[in-house]
Amino acid sequence: MNYSKGSPSLSASSPGATGTVALRWHGSSLELLDQRLLPAQEHWVTLEGASGVAQCIQDMVVRGAPAIGISAAYGVALAARHAGGGDWKAEIEQAIRELAASRPTAVNLFWALQRIERVFHACDSLSEAQKRLADEAVAIHQEDLAGNLAMADHALEAMGFSVGTGKPMSVSVLTHCNTGALATGGYGTALGVIRRLHEKKLLKQVYADETRPWLQGSRLTAWELMREGIPVTLNADGAAAAILAAGEVQWIIVGADRITANGDVANKIGTYSLAVLARYHKVGFMVVAPSSTVDMSLASGEDIPIEERDGVEVREIRGIPLAPEGVPVFNPVFDVTPANLIDLIVTEKGVVRNPNITGMHGLFG
Ligand SMILES: CSC[C@@H](O)[C@@H](O)C(=O)COP(=O)(O)O
């Protein structure tokens, strides 16, 4: 793994992209923007093999459900590219296993690997695999970006902002974690909806939860929004209740890491408490995610594997102690929001209102 310094400037690589990108594909290498260092530094990590990509997913150099899936797909393409030529199939299979073990909760990782694996099994030679796996990874990346743009349209319509309905009132929203260009193929899920509201002049204010302990909200979401001049106010997670009580927001908009067949949603720790707050304060609660986040094989959120990370992420920030040394820590990094607290699940395929098993089956079969 080569930790190279300095991305000159982030440039949009595809139509609809925002100017912020998390990953750059070069055919024989993958570059990942090291999200652990933002917003202080823009470092790009250059990877030439699947093990490095798996390590970067585990260490959160790259994070966010769709970006993890896209990176893993490129990781398999790299494994093919650099396969020794001997038992190339075994080398690629090993790469897939290693990538699948990197993080457990976001189903996009397994979805992308399964899609890549289907192509791999149809290949008869290493040269065919090298070409087709790279093409498939690029397709997964491009489709994710296109899906983000489509879900933003669906979301605005579901919020009642249809074309030609006069001059609607603008809204203020609260979001959690980072679901933007950094977490996806280049536009964002929940943050894509927020971007689209801003583009259409329908957005008054975004409140961004800082999102303890990893601070995706303060380090990444606030950074992305400020780069584009989108009005954002950062708040400590515990301030969300006071913001809602003051009537400051009309919608809470979040992403997802896995959505089960009954409409339960796993997302960044703290999402569930926001959904409870939204219901109490009669504020809309919207989940925005690509259909690759939907896992119809699981009946409910109880079946979702929830990642727990090292307590050091809560006890310290960059080596500075925030708690007594050795204090036991409970650090689940996702929680499950039950479907009955969710008003809308928005995907590129369409919208499920008041999600339940019937509505989910209607859209995702
Ligand atoms: C479009 S990203 C959706 C989710 O992956 C996001 O809300 C989230 O929980 C990310 O968690 P992370 O631990 O940063 O990978």
Automatic annotation (TrEMBL):
Pathway: Amino-acid biosynthesis; L-methionine biosynthesis via salvage pathway; L-methionine from S-methyl-5-thio-alpha-D-ribose 1-phosphate: step 1/6. It comes from the Bacteria. It holds the Pfam family IF-2B. Catalyzes the interconversion of methylthioribose-1-phosphate (MTR-1-P) into methylthioribulose-1-phosphate (MTRu-1-P). Also catalyzes the interconversion of 5-deoxyribose 1-phosphate and 5-deoxyribulose 1-phosphate. Part of a bifunctional DHAP-shunt salvage pathway for SAM by-products. Its EC number is 5.3.1.23. This is Methylthioribose-1-phosphate isomerase. It is an enzyme of class 5 (isomerase). It comes from Marinobacter antarcticus. One of its GO terms (molecular function) is S-methyl-5-thioribose-1-phosphate isomerase activity. HAMAP family: Salvage_MtnA. The keyword Coiled coil does not apply.
